[in-house]
Amino acid sequence: MSFFDKIFGGKEEAPERKSFWKKIESSEDLAKAIEASYHHKIAIFKHSTRCFISSTVLKNFEREIDSLDHKPDLYYLDLLEHRLISNKIAEDLGIRHESPQLIIIEDGKVVDSSSHEDISISQVI
Predict the structure, then answer these.
(1) Mean of the per-residue pLDDT values for the chain?
(2) Domain of life, per the record (predicted)?
């Protein structure tokens, strides 16, 4: 980022996500995630990259995951970049949109959903 971008608010680059995340960036990615839920529990983390609270919750959640020996099947959605996919999740799965939000899915159905300080790795394992 250039000096002028820092002063005048140029576009910041998004930080790289941890390697355990599978990104959802299309309807096809979402369909694959839902399909995987028929084989094992999955989690989708919906994150607003412009929200300090969402960033804090995400960092805390990633710290919890880092401490695990076995990583669960985790999907990451940047809801600002992929608003239509975020809306599709809410509509198709019948849940209210929140951010940050952790959605736990088994057999194609939401079995748990939490937001903000209620998000915990214990929901996934």
Answers:
(1) 90
(2) Bacteria
